[in-house]
Design a protein that fits this description.
With about 300 residues, the protein is of the alpha/beta class. It folds into two domains: about 160 residues, Periplasmic binding protein-like II (D-Maltodextrin-Binding Protein, domain 2), CATH 3.40.190; about 120 residues, D-Maltodextrin-Binding Protein, domain 2, CATH 3.40.190.10. The protein contains ten helices and eleven strands. The chain has a six-stranded mixed sheet. Strand 1, helix 1 and strand 2 form a beta-alpha-beta unit. The protein starts with 10 loop residues before the first strand and ends with a helix.
């Protein structure tokens, strides 16, 4: 969708941004601007807005799963990232297995079936990268079973990725033994389900100490035409996001939602590397090409 933006003055933008502790003040109007009004017209569930954003340009400004954004850039979608994350967490505890079917270690998933909502899901990309690099898992020997299409229409899953049949939800497939392990946003609250990575919290701390990075999920993006026509508006959006974050609860000792290209560089390098290795993107993008001159210069 091509949109013309006024050359000067206040603007109202179609926006998609879910409710998080760091976005609450902005969504509630506690943080506001005389220059930019954000019309939060996207769906309540964040991921439901990603496909309309990358396929139809449904919003002028939106949060977007970082892997969806990487794919969008690789396939020439007119989007520009702001150096601002609105969702992130360490992923080590989000791959589980059904212990009633037998004990599993990370290496044991080779030759087995592992469920994931979509092969391109950001949590899945992070975890496959962790399993490959930290636990020596040969990902090509794992059968990944998916539930949904990718958000970017041009992308096709690589050979060996299978679509689930039968209409079961992923948690039920894991409990029934249809998959041997599963990558999920939250593991089922069932005593049979255990994390595949032992002591995931300690593993996450060790990973952070090794890489000096956090595992980010959702980045904020704008229509490329908006950034070209109204850099003042893009700068104001960044200010609003930062002000909303500061109005929220204090970040933990390890801030999982960094702002600014310098703070984002290492996480973006890693997720881009993992995405390329897993055949998610056709080439390894450079961090600086994810931004333009306006957004690359934004600092907290």
């Amino acid at each position: 969708m091509t949109v013309a933006f006024p050359a000067a003055g206040p603007v109202t933008l179609r926006a998609h941004l879910a409710e998080y502790p760091v976005t609450h003040a902005l969504r509630a109007g506690e943080v506001s601007s005389d220059l930019v009004k954000l019309d939060f017209c996207g769906p309540k569930q964040a991921y439901e807005g990603f496909k309309p954003m990358v396929r139809e340009g449904a919003y002028d400004a939106s949060e977007l799963a970082v892997v969806t954004f990487l794919q969008a850039k690789a396939y020439g979608k007119p989007l520009v990232a702001l150096p601002a994350f609105v969702l992130g967490r360490f992923q080590h505890g989000l791959v589980g297995y059904n212990a009633s079917k037998g004990e599993l270690t990370p290496k044991d998933i080779e030759g087995r079936r592992v469920g994931v909502r979509s092969y391109t899901q950001t949590t899945g990309v992070w975890l496959r990268g962790i399993l490959a690099h930290e636990y020596g898992v040969d990902l090509k020997r794992v059968k990944f079973v998916t539930m949904e299409d990718p958000h970017v229409i041009e992308y096709r899953d690589p050979p060996g990725v299978e679509r689930a049949s039968g209409g079961k939800k992923l948690d039920q497939m894991l409990l029934d033994g249809d998959v041997d392990a599963a990558i999920m946003g939250d593991l089922p609250k069932d005593p049979r389900i255990r994390p595949l990575i032992p002591d995931p919290e300690a593993a996450a701390r060790a990973w952070h100490a090794k890489y000096g990075a956090v595992q980010v999920n959702h980045i904020f993006v704008v229509n490329e035409a908006l950034s070209k026509a109204r850099p003042d508006v893009v700068k104001e959006i960044f200010r609003l996001l930062l002000a909303s974050k500061k109005a929220g609860p204090p970040p933990p000792a390890v801030d999982s939602l960094p702002f600014g290209v310098a703070a984002l560089r290492k996480p973006l390098e890693l997720i881009t590397q993992y995405a390329f290795e897993q055949e998610i993107i056709p080439r390894r993008l450079e961090v600086d090409e994810l931004f333009d001159d306006t957004t690359r210069a934004l600092v907290p």
